[in-house]
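The protein record passed on for reference:
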Amino acid sequence: MTVARRSFTVSAIALVGALAFAPQGAIAQDKVTLRLSTPASETDQRSIAMAEVFGPAVADFASYEPHYNSSLIAQGSELEAIATGDLDMSITSAQELATFFPMFSIFTAGYVHQDADHQVAVFNDPLMEPFKQKVEDELGVKLLAVMYLGERHVNLRMPRSERDVQTPEDLSGVNLRMPGTDAWQFLGRALGANPTPMAFTEVYTALQTGSVDGQDNPLPTVVDAKFYEVTEQIALTRHLVDLNYIAISKEIWDGLDETQQAQLQQAATDAASAGREAQLAKEAELVSFLEEQGLELYEPDLEAFREHVQAQYLGSDFAADWPKGVLEQINALAE
Protein backbone atom coordinates (compact mmCIF):
# COMPACT_ATOMS: atom_id res chain seq x y z
CA MET A 1 0.00 0.00 0.00
CA THR A 2 1.39 3.40 -0.93
CA VAL A 3 1.83 6.08 1.71
CA ALA A 4 -0.83 8.25 0.05
CA ARG A 5 -3.36 5.39 -0.07
CA ARG A 6 -2.72 4.45 3.58
CA SER A 7 -3.10 8.05 4.69
CA PHE A 8 -6.53 8.29 2.95
CA THR A 9 -7.70 5.05 4.54
CA VAL A 10 -6.76 6.12 8.06
CA SER A 11 -8.49 9.45 7.55
CA ALA A 12 -11.67 7.76 6.29
CA ILE A 13 -11.72 5.41 9.29
CA ALA A 14 -11.22 8.34 11.65
CA LEU A 15 -14.11 10.22 10.00
CA VAL A 16 -16.45 7.23 10.30
CA GLY A 17 -15.53 6.87 13.96
CA ALA A 18 -16.16 10.53 14.61
CA LEU A 19 -19.57 10.39 12.94
CA ALA A 20 -20.51 7.33 14.95
CA PHE A 21 -20.02 9.21 18.22
CA ALA A 22 -21.26 12.60 17.03
CA PRO A 23 -24.61 13.91 18.29
CA GLN A 24 -27.43 12.96 15.93
CA GLY A 25 -28.32 16.58 15.31
CA ALA A 26 -24.79 17.26 14.07
CA ILE A 27 -25.42 14.92 11.13
CA ALA A 28 -29.02 15.59 10.19
CA GLN A 29 -31.80 16.69 12.51
CA ASP A 30 -34.83 14.40 12.49
CA LYS A 31 -38.04 16.08 11.42
CA VAL A 32 -40.65 16.82 14.06
CA THR A 33 -43.94 15.00 13.46
CA LEU A 34 -46.98 17.24 13.78
CA ARG A 35 -50.12 15.11 14.04
CA LEU A 36 -53.26 17.22 13.82
CA SER A 37 -56.70 15.86 14.66
CA THR A 38 -59.85 17.66 13.51
CA PRO A 39 -63.55 16.77 13.24
CA ALA A 40 -63.61 18.64 9.91
CA SER A 41 -63.51 16.86 6.58
CA GLU A 42 -60.64 16.93 4.12
CA THR A 43 -62.56 19.37 1.90
CA ASP A 44 -63.26 21.88 4.70
CA GLN A 45 -61.64 25.27 4.03
CA ARG A 46 -59.65 25.00 7.26
CA SER A 47 -58.33 21.57 6.31
CA ILE A 48 -57.40 22.72 2.81
CA ALA A 49 -55.54 25.76 4.12
CA MET A 50 -53.56 23.72 6.62
CA ALA A 51 -52.66 21.07 4.03
CA GLU A 52 -51.80 23.45 1.20
CA VAL A 53 -50.23 26.32 3.14
CA PHE A 54 -49.13 25.22 6.61
CA GLY A 55 -47.72 21.79 5.76
CA PRO A 56 -45.42 22.85 2.90
CA ALA A 57 -44.22 25.92 4.84
CA VAL A 58 -42.79 23.80 7.68
CA ALA A 59 -41.69 20.84 5.56
CA ASP A 60 -37.95 21.43 5.98
CA PHE A 61 -38.11 20.66 9.72
CA ALA A 62 -41.54 19.13 10.35
CA SER A 63 -43.77 16.44 8.91
CA TYR A 64 -47.42 17.57 8.96
CA GLU A 65 -49.87 14.68 9.38
CA PRO A 66 -53.56 15.71 9.42
CA HIS A 67 -56.27 13.31 10.54
CA TYR A 68 -59.81 14.25 9.51
CA ASN A 69 -63.34 13.42 10.72
CA SER A 70 -62.10 12.77 14.28
CA SER A 71 -60.40 9.60 13.03
CA LEU A 72 -57.47 9.99 15.44
CA ILE A 73 -58.92 11.69 18.52
CA ALA A 74 -62.60 11.97 19.46
CA GLN A 75 -64.15 15.40 18.93
CA GLY A 76 -63.94 17.45 22.10
CA SER A 77 -60.95 15.52 23.44
CA GLU A 78 -58.23 17.16 21.34
CA LEU A 79 -57.03 19.65 23.95
CA GLU A 80 -56.74 16.96 26.61
CA ALA A 81 -54.83 14.79 24.14
CA ILE A 82 -52.35 17.60 23.51
CA ALA A 83 -51.97 18.18 27.24
CA THR A 84 -51.14 14.51 27.84
CA GLY A 85 -48.75 14.29 24.90
CA ASP A 86 -50.99 12.07 22.78
CA LEU A 87 -51.56 14.70 20.09
CA ASP A 88 -49.46 17.50 18.62
CA MET A 89 -51.94 19.94 17.05
CA SER A 90 -55.64 20.68 16.70
CA ILE A 91 -58.05 23.28 15.39
CA THR A 92 -59.97 24.12 18.55
CA SER A 93 -62.96 26.31 19.35
CA ALA A 94 -63.60 29.00 21.91
CA GLN A 95 -66.48 26.84 23.15
CA GLU A 96 -64.09 23.98 23.90
CA LEU A 97 -61.57 26.26 25.57
CA ALA A 98 -64.37 27.71 27.71
CA THR A 99 -64.94 24.26 29.26
CA PHE A 100 -61.42 24.54 30.72
CA PHE A 101 -61.24 28.31 31.13
CA PRO A 102 -64.65 30.03 31.52
CA MET A 103 -63.11 33.39 30.60
CA PHE A 104 -63.08 32.18 26.97
CA SER A 105 -66.88 32.22 26.94
CA ILE A 106 -66.67 35.89 25.99
CA PHE A 107 -65.60 34.76 22.51
CA THR A 108 -68.68 32.54 22.19
CA ALA A 109 -71.17 35.32 22.94
CA GLY A 110 -73.29 37.09 20.37
CA TYR A 111 -71.99 40.29 18.77
CA VAL A 112 -68.53 40.15 20.34
CA HIS A 113 -66.65 39.66 17.08
CA GLN A 114 -68.08 41.86 14.33
CA ASP A 115 -66.41 40.37 11.25
CA ALA A 116 -63.39 38.36 10.09
CA ASP A 117 -60.97 41.29 10.29
CA HIS A 118 -62.16 42.11 13.80
CA GLN A 119 -61.38 38.53 14.85
CA VAL A 120 -57.78 38.93 13.71
CA ALA A 121 -57.43 42.33 15.41
CA VAL A 122 -58.69 40.87 18.69
CA PHE A 123 -56.43 37.82 18.50
CA ASN A 124 -53.34 39.94 17.83
CA ASP A 125 -54.13 42.59 20.44
CA PRO A 126 -52.42 42.63 23.86
CA LEU A 127 -55.83 41.99 25.45
CA MET A 128 -55.50 38.36 24.28
CA GLU A 129 -52.18 37.76 26.04
CA PRO A 130 -53.69 36.74 29.42
CA PHE A 131 -56.01 34.32 27.58
CA LYS A 132 -53.17 32.77 25.58
CA GLN A 133 -50.85 32.61 28.58
CA LYS A 134 -53.42 30.83 30.73
CA VAL A 135 -53.88 28.13 28.09
CA GLU A 136 -50.11 27.68 27.83
CA ASP A 137 -49.48 27.62 31.58
CA GLU A 138 -52.35 25.38 32.65
CA LEU A 139 -52.94 23.18 29.60
CA GLY A 140 -49.61 23.17 27.79
CA VAL A 141 -51.24 24.39 24.56
CA LYS A 142 -50.10 27.34 22.46
CA LEU A 143 -52.64 29.21 20.33
CA LEU A 144 -51.02 30.21 17.04
CA ALA A 145 -53.68 31.91 14.92
CA VAL A 146 -57.42 32.50 14.59
CA MET A 147 -59.40 30.89 11.76
CA TYR A 148 -62.66 32.32 10.42
CA LEU A 149 -65.62 29.91 10.31
CA GLY A 150 -68.39 32.17 9.11
CA GLU A 151 -71.29 34.34 10.22
CA ARG A 152 -74.61 33.04 11.51
CA HIS A 153 -77.79 34.72 10.28
CA VAL A 154 -81.54 34.46 10.84
CA ASN A 155 -83.28 32.46 8.09
CA LEU A 156 -87.12 32.68 8.10
CA ARG A 157 -89.89 30.84 6.25
CA MET A 158 -92.16 33.87 5.95
CA PRO A 159 -91.49 36.61 3.34
CA ARG A 160 -90.07 39.98 4.30
CA SER A 161 -93.41 41.59 3.50
CA GLU A 162 -94.82 39.63 6.44
CA ARG A 163 -91.87 39.95 8.83
CA ASP A 164 -89.24 42.64 8.18
CA VAL A 165 -86.48 42.08 10.74
CA GLN A 166 -84.71 45.33 11.58
CA THR A 167 -84.38 45.19 15.39
CA PRO A 168 -84.68 42.50 18.10
CA GLU A 169 -88.28 43.58 18.66
CA ASP A 170 -89.10 42.35 15.16
CA LEU A 171 -88.23 38.79 16.19
CA SER A 172 -90.75 38.79 19.02
CA GLY A 173 -92.91 35.66 18.81
CA VAL A 174 -90.72 34.03 16.15
CA ASN A 175 -90.08 30.37 16.91
CA LEU A 176 -86.42 30.17 15.94
CA ARG A 177 -84.73 26.79 15.92
CA MET A 178 -81.44 27.00 17.84
CA PRO A 179 -79.10 24.28 19.14
CA GLY A 180 -80.29 22.90 22.46
CA THR A 181 -77.56 23.96 24.90
CA ASP A 182 -78.19 26.69 27.48
CA ALA A 183 -75.71 29.01 25.76
CA TRP A 184 -77.42 28.73 22.37
CA GLN A 185 -80.89 29.09 23.86
CA PHE A 186 -79.77 32.21 25.71
CA LEU A 187 -78.45 33.70 22.46
CA GLY A 188 -81.81 33.04 20.79
CA ARG A 189 -83.65 34.89 23.57
CA ALA A 190 -81.11 37.71 23.47
CA LEU A 191 -81.86 38.14 19.76
CA GLY A 192 -85.51 38.71 20.69
CA ALA A 193 -86.82 35.38 19.39
CA ASN A 194 -88.45 32.38 21.00
CA PRO A 195 -85.62 29.81 20.71
CA THR A 196 -86.76 26.27 20.00
CA PRO A 197 -84.35 23.37 20.59
CA MET A 198 -84.44 20.79 17.83
CA ALA A 199 -82.13 18.20 16.28
CA PHE A 200 -80.51 19.48 13.11
CA THR A 201 -81.85 16.56 11.10
CA GLU A 202 -85.41 17.66 11.89
CA VAL A 203 -85.06 21.30 10.86
CA TYR A 204 -85.91 21.00 7.16
CA THR A 205 -89.23 19.28 7.83
CA ALA A 206 -90.05 21.65 10.69
CA LEU A 207 -89.54 24.64 8.39
CA GLN A 208 -91.59 22.96 5.68
CA THR A 209 -94.55 22.27 7.99
CA GLY A 210 -94.32 25.49 10.00
CA SER A 211 -93.39 23.79 13.27
CA VAL A 212 -90.72 26.48 13.50
CA ASP A 213 -90.61 29.88 11.83
CA GLY A 214 -86.91 29.91 11.13
CA GLN A 215 -83.42 28.75 11.95
CA ASP A 216 -79.98 30.31 12.38
CA ASN A 217 -76.87 29.12 10.56
CA PRO A 218 -74.08 30.33 8.27
CA LEU A 219 -74.95 30.61 4.56
CA PRO A 220 -72.99 27.45 3.58
CA THR A 221 -75.19 25.43 5.93
CA VAL A 222 -78.36 27.00 4.49
CA VAL A 223 -77.23 25.81 1.07
CA ASP A 224 -75.85 22.40 2.08
CA ALA A 225 -79.01 21.53 4.02
CA LYS A 226 -81.23 23.03 1.28
CA PHE A 227 -83.07 25.22 3.78
CA TYR A 228 -83.50 27.73 0.93
CA GLU A 229 -86.16 25.38 -0.48
CA VAL A 230 -88.44 25.96 2.53
CA THR A 231 -87.64 29.56 3.52
CA GLU A 232 -88.24 33.01 2.02
CA GLN A 233 -85.70 35.38 3.54
CA ILE A 234 -82.40 35.76 5.38
CA ALA A 235 -81.82 38.69 7.70
CA LEU A 236 -78.04 39.08 7.73
CA THR A 237 -77.89 39.57 11.49
CA ARG A 238 -74.28 38.36 11.83
CA HIS A 239 -75.08 37.59 15.44
CA LEU A 240 -72.20 35.17 15.78
CA VAL A 241 -68.94 35.46 13.84
CA ASP A 242 -67.63 32.01 14.60
CA LEU A 243 -63.97 31.06 14.91
CA ASN A 244 -61.41 28.37 15.62
CA TYR A 245 -57.84 28.58 16.85
CA ILE A 246 -54.84 26.70 15.44
CA ALA A 247 -53.31 25.08 18.52
CA ILE A 248 -50.02 23.26 19.09
CA SER A 249 -48.36 21.46 21.98
CA LYS A 250 -46.29 23.94 24.00
CA GLU A 251 -43.75 21.17 24.61
CA ILE A 252 -43.21 20.73 20.87
CA TRP A 253 -43.06 24.48 20.38
CA ASP A 254 -40.41 24.83 23.08
CA GLY A 255 -38.38 22.08 21.41
CA LEU A 256 -37.98 24.15 18.24
CA ASP A 257 -35.24 26.72 17.78
CA GLU A 258 -36.13 30.38 17.30
CA THR A 259 -35.91 30.21 13.52
CA GLN A 260 -38.22 27.19 13.39
CA GLN A 261 -40.67 28.81 15.80
CA ALA A 262 -40.83 31.93 13.63
CA GLN A 263 -41.31 29.81 10.52
CA LEU A 264 -44.06 27.72 12.12
CA GLN A 265 -45.84 30.81 13.47
CA GLN A 266 -45.78 32.42 10.03
CA ALA A 267 -47.06 29.19 8.46
CA ALA A 268 -50.03 29.14 10.86
CA THR A 269 -50.77 32.82 10.26
CA ASP A 270 -50.64 32.34 6.50
CA ALA A 271 -52.83 29.22 6.63
CA ALA A 272 -55.44 31.05 8.71
CA SER A 273 -55.38 33.94 6.23
CA ALA A 274 -55.81 31.62 3.24
CA GLY A 275 -58.70 29.80 4.90
CA ARG A 276 -60.31 33.11 5.84
CA GLU A 277 -60.17 34.49 2.30
CA ALA A 278 -61.54 31.25 0.86
CA GLN A 279 -64.46 31.19 3.31
CA LEU A 280 -65.30 34.85 2.70
CA ALA A 281 -65.27 34.27 -1.06
CA LYS A 282 -67.53 31.26 -0.64
CA GLU A 283 -70.01 33.25 1.44
CA ALA A 284 -70.09 36.03 -1.17
CA GLU A 285 -70.83 33.52 -3.91
CA LEU A 286 -73.65 32.00 -1.85
CA VAL A 287 -75.39 35.36 -1.47
CA SER A 288 -75.85 35.46 -5.25
CA PHE A 289 -76.90 31.81 -5.34
CA LEU A 290 -79.54 32.25 -2.66
CA GLU A 291 -80.93 35.37 -4.33
CA GLU A 292 -81.21 33.36 -7.55
CA GLN A 293 -83.28 30.82 -5.59
CA GLY A 294 -85.77 33.57 -4.76
CA LEU A 295 -84.71 34.43 -1.20
CA GLU A 296 -84.46 38.04 -0.10
CA LEU A 297 -81.24 38.80 1.78
CA TYR A 298 -80.88 42.10 3.61
CA GLU A 299 -79.00 43.69 6.49
CA PRO A 300 -81.00 44.82 9.54
CA ASP A 301 -79.98 47.47 12.08
CA LEU A 302 -76.86 45.70 13.35
CA GLU A 303 -76.09 48.34 15.95
CA ALA A 304 -79.54 47.91 17.49
CA PHE A 305 -79.00 44.16 17.66
CA ARG A 306 -75.47 44.53 19.05
CA GLU A 307 -76.46 46.91 21.81
CA HIS A 308 -79.43 44.78 22.84
CA VAL A 309 -77.63 41.43 22.78
CA GLN A 310 -74.53 42.66 24.59
CA ALA A 311 -76.73 44.20 27.30
CA GLN A 312 -78.46 40.84 27.74
CA TYR A 313 -75.12 39.09 28.21
CA LEU A 314 -73.71 41.68 30.59
CA GLY A 315 -76.78 41.27 32.77
CA SER A 316 -76.45 37.49 32.88
CA ASP A 317 -74.33 34.87 34.62
CA PHE A 318 -72.46 34.26 31.36
CA ALA A 319 -70.48 37.47 31.85
CA ALA A 320 -69.44 36.62 35.41
CA ASP A 321 -66.19 35.03 34.19
CA TRP A 322 -65.29 37.71 31.67
CA PRO A 323 -62.25 39.79 32.66
CA LYS A 324 -63.32 43.30 33.59
CA GLY A 325 -63.14 45.80 30.75
CA VAL A 326 -62.26 43.28 28.03
CA LEU A 327 -65.59 43.58 26.19
CA GLU A 328 -65.10 47.32 25.96
CA GLN A 329 -61.57 46.78 24.59
CA ILE A 330 -62.91 44.33 22.01
CA ASN A 331 -65.61 46.76 20.92
CA ALA A 332 -63.05 49.55 20.59
CA LEU A 333 -60.98 47.50 18.16
CA ALA A 334 -63.89 47.52 15.71
CA GLU A 335 -64.25 51.30 15.70
User: Anything to note?
Assistant: The radius of gyration is 25 Å.
